[in-house]
Amino acid sequence: MISAEEARLARLTEYVDGELTDDEQRELEAILAEDAALRHEVDDARAARLLLRGLAEPRPIPRDFLRKVRRRARRNLRGGYFDRSGNILFFGVSVEIFVVIAIAAMAACWFFVERASPRAPARLQWESPAAASPGDAPPR
Fold first, then answer.
1. Which of 87, 11, 20, 21 shows the shortest CA–CA distance to 42?
2. Does the residue 18 lie in any domain?
3. Confidence at residue 140, expressed as pLDDT on a 0 to 100 scale
4. Contact 85, 95 (CB under 8 A)
5. Do residue 46 and residue 11 come from a single domain?
6. What is the pLDDT, as a whole number, of residue 121?
7. Residues 12, 42 contacting (CB under 8 angstroms)
8. How far is CA 55 from CA 44, 45, 122, in A?
9. Per the domain annotation, does 60 fall within a domain?
10. CB–CB of 88/95 below 8 Å?
């Protein structure tokens, strides 16, 4: 269900587009005569409609558009990012070597984090039944 505001905007749009019946148009014009803010809103809608009409018709995209964009991007990036040779990020390193370096770096980080984390204490050992009193035996 549309809100009252959406219905009001739809009615104003229909008025600006000339889609109201004669009775509806007279009724809205009577309201516009008394409401300056509403007149301003209608004037803004008319101005926007005129601007949209003034836009040129879209032209079809040339067949070689994508090729030209790719060529210009390669020229502007000077071969950076991924180029045809498989090099990335201006370093001249192939993708495979980059992946191996990344895995090695992650493994090194994991190793150092594991070394730096405190170890869990050794498991507690129960005393032998001979050394403990009869009430201290572990439950079975």
1. 11
2. yes
3. 55
4. no
5. yes
6. 56
7. yes
8. 17, 16, 78
9. no
10. yes
Please check whether residues 9 and 50 belong to one and the same domain.
yes
**Cα–Cα dist 110/102, whole Å:** 12
Any residues with CB less than 8 A from the CB of 51 and at least 6 apart, and which?
none
* Coil/strand/helix, residue 13: helix
Place of tokens 């300056």: 36
Domain range for 9 is 4-54
Q: Are residues 49 and 87 in the same domain?
A: no
Q: What predicted TM-score, i.e. pTM, was given to this entire model?
A: 0.39
10-residue mean pLDDT profile of the chain (140 residues): values are 84 89 90 90 88 80 87 73 51 74 90 72 58 56
Pick from 118, 96, 119, 100: nearest CA to 108: 100
70 found inside a domain: no
CB-based burial, 63-102: b 16+ in 10 Å, e otherwise: eeeeeeeeeeeeeeeeeeeeeeeebbeeeeeeeeeeeeee
Report the C-alpha gap between 49 and 65 in whole angstroms: 31
Q: Give me the number of domains the chain comprises.
A: 2
Same-domain pairing of 50 and 13: yes
